[in-house]
Amino acid sequence: MSSTTRATFARLGLLAVAVIFVVAVSLANMILRGARLDLTENRLYTLAPGTERVLGSIAEPIHLYFFFSDKATTDIPYLRAYAGRVRDMLRELAQESQGKLQVTEIDPVPFSDEEDRATQFGLQGIRLENTADPVFMGVAGTNSVGDDEVIAFLDPTKEAFLEYELAKLVYSLANPKRPVVALLSSLPISAGFDPMTQQIRQPWAIVAQLRQLFDVRQLDAAATSIADDVQVLMVVHPKALSEQTLYAIDQFILRGGRAMLFVDPWAEVDPGAPDPMDPSGSTPGGRSSELARLLAAWGVGVDTGNFVGDDRWALQVMGPAQRPVRDIGLVGVPPEGLDADDVVTAGLSLLNFGFAGSITLDEKAAATLTPLVHSSDLAAPVATAALGFVTDPQMLREGFKPTGRQYTLAARISGKLPSAFPQGAPGGAAAGSKPHIAAAAEAVNVVLVADVDFLSDRLWVQTQNFFGQRLNNAFANNGDFVVNALDNLVGSSDLIGIRGRAAFTRPFTRVQELRRVADDRFRVTEERLQGELRETEEKLTALQAGREDRNAMILSPEQEQELERFRDQRIGIRKELRQVQRNLDRDIERLGDWLKAINIGLVPLLISILGIVLVIARRRRHTGTTAS
What we know:
Blueprint: H1 3-31, H2 49-56, E1 62-68, H3 77-96, E2 101-106, H4 113-121, E3 137-142, E4 148-151, H5 162-174, E5 180-185, E6 192-194, E7 199-201, H6 205-211, E8 215-219, E9 232-236, H7 243-254, E10 258-262, H8 292-298, E11 300-302, E12 306-310, E13 314-318, E14 324-333, E15 351-354, E16 359-361, E17 368-374, E18 379-383, E19 408-415, E20 444-449, E21 461-466, E22 469-474, H9 478-490, H10 493-496, H11 509-545, H12 557-627
Helix pairs in contact: 1-12, 11-12
């Protein structure tokens, strides 16, 4: 075969390969259109099952408007990158909704109708150092009946909860009715008439805040039934509740109602004076509260005889003689003690507790307990009996020995829990038309906090009267915790189940590891250089001190020899340092070449092969069907 013929066949072969590649890519585009495969380690582009069910429950169209200052963020790459991830998530939600969710992106440039529209929705424009105009990055949504919900600003630091925030906004628009929260408390927590002062009693700041967001209904402490439209039951400081009231709470929770429970081994906010013979407060007139019957049936316990003292996170208070002292019973929990993966506690900075109890779980418990807040490792239980005689917070430190354990102060409780009344309704309970429930058919959702003082104004907010209006200035996140928890509980079980996902930003861990190893080698070599420099200086100093002549400014032959030896060593060590850096660059370049080869060559080849295989399989099925 002549060289001309071989060259012709080679060209035809290349042309055939090119044609096959183009045909394979075209077939793959047609066959795999709309198909997606999430190969990321943490499935970053796969919606949670709860989100999918929330989208599937949309009855009428919902419009989402993504306001992003595209032109104003030209020189802010991290905001633009996060906006891209928000955009991808919104597109994924719209596609999963089967057309029920419509997404529009708007750039609210300054002095435009779009900026006015963003402001009318309540979105917040922030001013950054390198931008002259305010930057908008929020989402507004409307439903078919004119309700609207907004996320005023999408904070990049809360990226892990982006899916939850968007799913919650969609759920709120699909279910616009204001959530009903029933409040049952033995404390004067709500507004009312105070017979002692003969004046109107102001509500606690937390209640005033909740009334702005929810339909809060006050229940009598002796209530024997809970209305069907109540979505969340909030029980605060339950003292000596009747069997009938406990049964009503029990059945409400087992029927799928959500609950937020606050109990306490020692509630300073309790106005009732403790029994001198029982300072722990275990008697009905004391300062403790519990739901032991219900919690015991679930396998959960709260120690009402001891509070958690914490020497690491103790708050500073004014002691005797107006001197500041640290009170181990008053604990300020920083982010290190909060669950960063739960939407209730993520992003909070400080939660203040006062003589809180510890929450435990039995080994054979029917419940699953997920800690939300825990103490530090310098904590230990302290008997509440000591509080009745304490005049100086320093007295609590006598005999205090941290156990090294972290005690749970607040937690989620879930699971298919049994009833605390296995024999049925107690005498006098409201029977009604509802049958007794022996165990929950679906997993319950309860948030338990082992402290009631947590809600009191003094631990988280300062209230001022400004021309007849009450202004609250929060110095801790206690109120945010309660709002987050209730907001989470009033959502569907699908929404509650959406946890924080891994961050989209993924560092080059292999490159970081290479740099770390190189830095270690560099540091060792540099330390050796510094050590030899010090050794040489010491030798030079010793030689100078031992000289008997007067020519101190002139180096002796020994000094010159030692200095020359050090110079040679320094040159060699510097070569070693440069070689370490070159090896690092070479390793990173080699890794980059492998990644390029995989992304540019291997991945398209695999996709083409997959497309060809699918075409062949489809043809075979078609041939088999025709033959039959």
